[in-house]
């Protein structure tokens, strides 16, 4: 073994280019595979840091009303307590309700401490036994009694440091916009990035406002309204399949009375294992979830890059066989066995791989520290070998496996030569593996071209999404967040002041900004026969001038108008999807009823994409927002929110925003000016797709680079092997470019064949990815041609760079070689 090591070191010292190409290719392959592997591990282990994750389930439900099937991740506020009372296998339950008006907190909760005011998006009211169900690393405080007091709050480490630095904040008070002090009773460590329900502040839900009524009938009525996330801690050994039977019985006992009153309605529930929510949830009103197709794509790219790197080693090892032929022949004559030679060559491959593992780990560390690669992965990638010795063992195992896989064929081939054949000619040893090398190059470029094509196709889809008309104007629309009833009641003054600026073209208000999921309710609407039928629709509350400011198109009827006394109550605008669903021949004047309020359809607008382009346009009813908030309870007035949309000209934007900030400062000096451009908000809906496209693009570039490294090495050895032939051709009049064309022709043919195979593979891969979009750009065949051209140009340039020196050299020097 010592002698083998000496031989290897001498070989590497003599063949520096070969060593550099092999180590560089394998190192890049390992680094990419490690990065993507860590990301995949984070995605696949969502929520598994909770001790009880195997026994925790999220309760979700489905309502079937008027022929509409709607699933919800949120449930009734009362259902947790009711199922716990009726099912002995429910050991505990926790309900999470987004802290804010109506259970929705779209712009962040303002938390005050002294003169410090910060906004926190992830704030919830929760049951007081949340820390018994969900395990946390507690920094300060007692989790057993942390939320017993209605005026208590548990905060994350990030919140504690933002307001109190490194001091212990337990016992300190913070306030919301309500102005009532809330005492900090516990500080918990920040949740890991791979947690589906993230929170920074947990308020006690033991207050009078959220207390469940004692009357069972009232609780049963509450079951038909949703708004909280409910988690159940089930007994060990619980079988989730038994829940369907219990759900049917629960409906029969508690919901049939109201269900029978609503014609054609039903309800059912099921349980989602905590660890499965991130990747296997497809219900409405859910938190952002992962996409298994993205994971398959990342796993495939990681595997492909590793395969390409291993192929490089195999190709270069067999290509340089002629240099080792003499050595192998002499060793065999001196008694070396085929097994011993094979083990030597395998050992070389394993040593190369282990060296690549070390360099790959360094590349990963540098990438995570000094590039934005981790931001594209949601800050989920962490490489900590000291804390995770198992990962170190996996890396060593990967190095050995990669060495064996990449070295098995060269070892078999190099050790198989007959001694006399190996000594007879230095070229004889390298001829037999030509087809094998070409097959490996074909595989390399099939993978590389497929990844390039997928990247271009994904980018084309995202460009299509960005440029597709949404049915409303999204450019030059500024969304200003309005907080508190006292500010909302001054809306008329705000709009009047804003209109004085020449760059402000109009303004309107709405409850939920475009792109976000509006509320879904059961509304009774008149059909063509004059009967009132329950229909589940999305509902959007809008202000005056909404149609004109947003650039909607009215097809029939008119917009709302405060000048008309009839536009009071439940008069609505509907979209075309509603007309189609109801089958109306004449929609104007059709009756609409919700609770004790009744109204009529006054206008029909053309369909517009009020949600993301992942979904088709669904029926939508638009109601006028109330001007008078006097009926809102005093305790809830500070938490009222609305979105003011201001349409600007696009000229002198900075000064216009400054003017808007001054107006808001006079009206609402308590809160900082919060705004966002509507097109930026809409782009955020496709954040995961943009990140995936960029990730695949980066790794596609790495993949093609590794393939070209191998191609460069192969061209080097091929050119060296054909030096005398090149010299002879030049003496006979061949030009340097003719020589380069001769050396490149075979490679270009392989790349073109690979492009055809890659087109088929990438077509099916992207077709599957596009199923996540309701609107698709389609698959342009020209993209496959572009991918083939890119790969061919890169391959030609790689071979030409290596071949040009030899092709342009003095042929006399080449002919002197023996």
Report the count of strand segments.
24
Mean pLDDT: 84
Q: Helix segment count? A: 28
Shape: elongated
Poorly predicted runs are 101-105
The share of residues in helices is 40-55%
Strand content: 15-25%
Rounded to the nearest angstrom, the distance between the terminal CA atoms is 34 Å
Largest sheet: 11 strands, mixed
**From the helix content, strand content and strand pairing, which structural class follows?**
alpha+beta
Backbone CA Rg = 34 Å
What does this protein look like?
With 818 residues, this protein is α+β, with helices and mostly antiparallel strands. It contains 28 helices and 24 strands. β1 and β2 (68-72) form a beta hairpin. The two termini are 34 Å apart. Mean pLDDT is 84; it is low at 101-105.
What is the compact description of this entry?
By secondary structure, the chain is an alpha+beta fold. It has 28 helices and 24 strands.
Key features of this structure:
single chain, 818 residues, alpha+beta, eleven-stranded mixed beta sheet, six-stranded mixed barrel, 28 helices, 24 strands
């Amino acid at each position: 073994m010592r002698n083998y090591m000496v031989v290897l070191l001498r070989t590497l010292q003599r063949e520096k280019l070969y060593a550099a190409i092999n180590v560089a290719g394998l190192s890049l392959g390992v680094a990419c595979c490690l990065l993507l592997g860590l990301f995949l591990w984070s995605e696949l282990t969502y929520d598994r840091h909770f001790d009880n994750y195997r026994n925790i389930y999220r309760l979700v439900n489905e309502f079937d009303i008027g022929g509409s099937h709607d699933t919800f991740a949120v449930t009734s506020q009362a259902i947790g307590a009711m199922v716990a009372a009726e099912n002995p296998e429910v050991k505990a339950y926790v309900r999470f309700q987004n802290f804010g008006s109506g259970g929705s907190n779209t712009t962040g909760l303002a938390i005050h401490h002294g003169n410090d005011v910060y906004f926190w998006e992830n704030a919830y009211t929760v049951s007081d036994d949340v820390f018994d169900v969900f395990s946390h690393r507690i920094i300060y405080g007692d989790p057993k009694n942390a939320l017993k007091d209605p005026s208590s709050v548990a905060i994350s480490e990030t919140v504690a440091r933002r307001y109190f630095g490194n001091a212990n904040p337990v016992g300190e008070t913070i306030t919301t916009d309500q102005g009532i002090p809330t005492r900090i009773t516990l500080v918990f460590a920040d949740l890991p990035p791979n947690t589906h329900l993230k929170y920074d502040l947990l308020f006690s839900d033991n207050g009078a406002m959220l207390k469940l009524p004692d009357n069972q009938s009232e609780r049963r009525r509450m079951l038909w309204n949703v708004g909280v996330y409910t988690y159940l801690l089930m007994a060990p050994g619980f079988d989730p399949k038994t829940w369907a039977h219990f759900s049917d019985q629960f409906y029969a006992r508690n919901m049939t009375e109201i269900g029978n009153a609503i014609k054609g309605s039903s309800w059912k529930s099921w349980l989602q294992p905590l660890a499965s929510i991130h990747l296997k949830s497809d219900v409405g009103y859910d938190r952002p979830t992962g996409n298994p197709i993205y994971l398959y794509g990342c796993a495939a790219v990681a595997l492909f890059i590793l395969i390409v790197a291993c192929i490089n080693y195999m190709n270069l090892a067999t290509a340089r066989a002629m240099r080792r032929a003499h050595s192998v022949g002499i060793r065999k004559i001196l008694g070396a066995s085929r097994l011993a030679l094979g083990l030597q060559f395998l050992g070389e491959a394993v040593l190369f791989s282990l060296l690549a593992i070390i360099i790959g780990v360094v590349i990963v560390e540098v990438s995570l520290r000094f590039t934005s690669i981790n931001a594209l992965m949601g800050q989920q990638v962490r490489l900590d070998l000291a804390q995770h010795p198992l990962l170190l063992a996996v890396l060593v195992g990967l190095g050995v496996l990669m060495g064996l896989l990449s070295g098995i064929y060269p070892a078999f081939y190099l050790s198989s030569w007959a001694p006399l054949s190996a000594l007879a000619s230095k070229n004889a040893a390298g001829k037999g593996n030509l087809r094998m090398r070409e097959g490996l190059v074909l595989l390399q470029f099939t993978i590389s071209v497929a990844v390039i094509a997928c990247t271009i196709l994904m980018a084309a889809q995202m460009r299509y999404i960005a440029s597709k008309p949404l049915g409303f104007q999204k450019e030059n629309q500024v969304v200003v967040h309005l907080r508190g009833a006292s500010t909302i009641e001054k809306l008329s003054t705000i709009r009047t002041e804003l209109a004085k600026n020449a760059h402000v073209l109009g303004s309107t208000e709405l409850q939920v900004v475009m792109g976000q999921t509006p509320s879904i309710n059961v509304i009774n609407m008149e059909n063509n026969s004059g009967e009132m039928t329950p229909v589940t629709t999305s509902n959007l509350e809008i202000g005056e001038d909404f149609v004109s400011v947003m650039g909607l198109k009215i097809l029939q009827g008119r917009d709302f108008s405060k000048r008309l006394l009839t536009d009071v109550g439940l008069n609505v605008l509907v979209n075309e999807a509603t007309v189609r669903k109801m089958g109306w021949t004449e929609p104007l004047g059709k009756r609409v009823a919700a609770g004790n309020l009744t109204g009529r359809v006054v206008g029909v607008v053309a369909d517009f994409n009020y949600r993301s382009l992942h979904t088709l346009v669904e029926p939508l009813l638009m109601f006028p927002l109330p001007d008078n908030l006097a009926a809102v309870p005093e305790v809830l007035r500070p938490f009222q929110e609305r979105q003011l949309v201001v349409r600007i000209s696009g000229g002198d934007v900075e000064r216009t925003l400054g003017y808007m900030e001054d107006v808001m400062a006079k009206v609402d000096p308590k809160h900082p000016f919060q705004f966002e451009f509507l097109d930026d908000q809409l782009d955020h809906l496709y954040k995961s797709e943009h990140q995936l496209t960029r990730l695949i693009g980066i790794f596609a570039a790495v993949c093609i680079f590794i393939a070209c490294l191998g191609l460069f090495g192969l061209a080097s050895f091929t050119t060296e092997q054909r030096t005398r032939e090149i010299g002879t051709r030049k003496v006979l009049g061949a030009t340097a470019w003719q020589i380069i064309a001769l050396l490149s022709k075979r490679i270009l043919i392989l790349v073109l064949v690979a492009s055809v195979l890659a087109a088929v593979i990438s077509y099916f891969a992207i077709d599957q990815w596009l199923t996540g979009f309701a609107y698709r750009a389609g698959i342009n065949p020209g993209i496959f041609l572009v991918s083939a051209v890119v790969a061919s140009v890169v391959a030609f340039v790689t071979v030409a760079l290596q071949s040009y020196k030899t092709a342009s050299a003095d042929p006399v020097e080449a002919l002197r070689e023996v």
